[in-house]
Design a protein that fits this description.
The protein is globular, with a radius of gyration of 18 Å. The strands form 2 sheets. Strands 3, 4, 6, 7, 9, 10, 12, 15, 16, 17 and 18 form an 11-stranded mixed beta sheet that branches. It has a 7-stranded mixed beta sheet with strand order 2-1-5-8-11-13-14, with no helix packed on it. The chain has helices at about 205, 235-250, and strands at about 5-15, 20-30, 35-40, 45-50, 60-70, 75-80, 80-85, 95-100, 105-110, 115, 120-130, 135-145, 155-160, 165-175, 195-200, 210-215, 220-225, 225-235. A hairpin with a 6-residue loop joins strand 3 (about 35-40) and strand 4. The mean pLDDT is about 90. It is mainly beta. The protein contains 2 helices and 18 strands. The termini are far apart.
Length: about 250
């Protein structure tokens, strides 16, 4: 019998409820992508991704989509880190995330870290499509290997488009089989935690943020359009989170 891996998907739709709040007409997850609405205050609503199973494993295919309609505010996090693990098959696992934010809507996409476990092979692609006037805070964090182990193969692509214009399209591949130099001074410089923070706000189009170095391991880069990118590396997940949190506070 051929083992092909798990196929699982999840969908979130957030919509203004007409009373100053945000409703969730669609909150649908399956298998390892369980979704839970959590308590929130103010006009926004919060959703947690709860890992109901291990994964993604080799050969798995996960898809997750979130659509935030005009006037809605959505905050999405995860209950724990995601572990990319070796599977019964030798094939690559894939995790596709699609985020659509209408003009006048706001999305905070702040999952926990993705940990690339030794022997795993994962391609994760996140694509965010924003309308004019949409607001976004998006954080990605990857940790290469658990304590004392080598990483698996991890390729991560992040694409952000605002009003039909691509403002960011980058890909990073790390671990066994990745192009040479990924662990060198021009990329990770020997560190094992890497992260990005993307903030999109209309105010950035009127008052541009200047490029700047944030300490020894992070940089803030204005993007074409009303967006800013913070890229950082760190020895571990805790210090990476601290760097990105401080950058977000600086931008607030």
């Amino acid at each position: 019998m051929t083992v092909t891996g798990v196929r699982a998907g999840a969908r979130i739709v957030a919509r203004a409820d007409g009373r100053g709040g945000t409703a969730l007409p669609v909150l649908d997850g399956e298998g390892p992508l369980a979704l839970r609405r959590t308590r929130s205050t103010g006009p926004g609503t919060k959703v947690m991704i709860v890992g109901a199973m291990s994964g993604p494993l080799g050969g798995d295919r996960f898809t997750l989509s979130a659509r935030v309609e005009e006037g809605a505010r959505l905050h999405v996090g995860s209950a724990a880190a995601t572990l990319a693990l070796p599977g019964q098959t030798k094939g690559e696992a894939r995790y596709d995330v699609r985020l659509d934010v209408a003009g006048g809507a706001e999305l905070h996409w702040l999952p926990e870290q993705l940990i690339s476990v030794e022997g795993s092979d994962l391609y994760v692609a996140t694509r965010a499509e924003l309308g004019a006037g949409a607001r976004l805070v998006l954080r990605e964090e990857q940790v290469l290997g658990r304590t004392g182990e080598q990483p698996g193969r991890l390729t991560s692509r992040l694409t952000v488009r605002v009003a039909g214009r691509t403002v960011l399209d980058q890909e990073l591949s790390c671990g066994p089989g990745a192009p040479g130099g990924w662990d060198g001074p021009a990329v990770l410089a020997g560190y094992r935690a890497v992260g990005q923070l993307v903030v999109v706000r209309e105010e950035f189009a009127r008052s541009a943020v200047e490029a700047q170095v944030l300490g020894e391991r992070a940089a803030l880069i204005p993007l074409a359009g009303p967006a800013v990118l913070v890229s950082a590396v760190a020895p571990d997940a805790l210090r990476l989170r601290r760097i990105l949190d401080e950058a977000l506070t600086r931008l607030s």
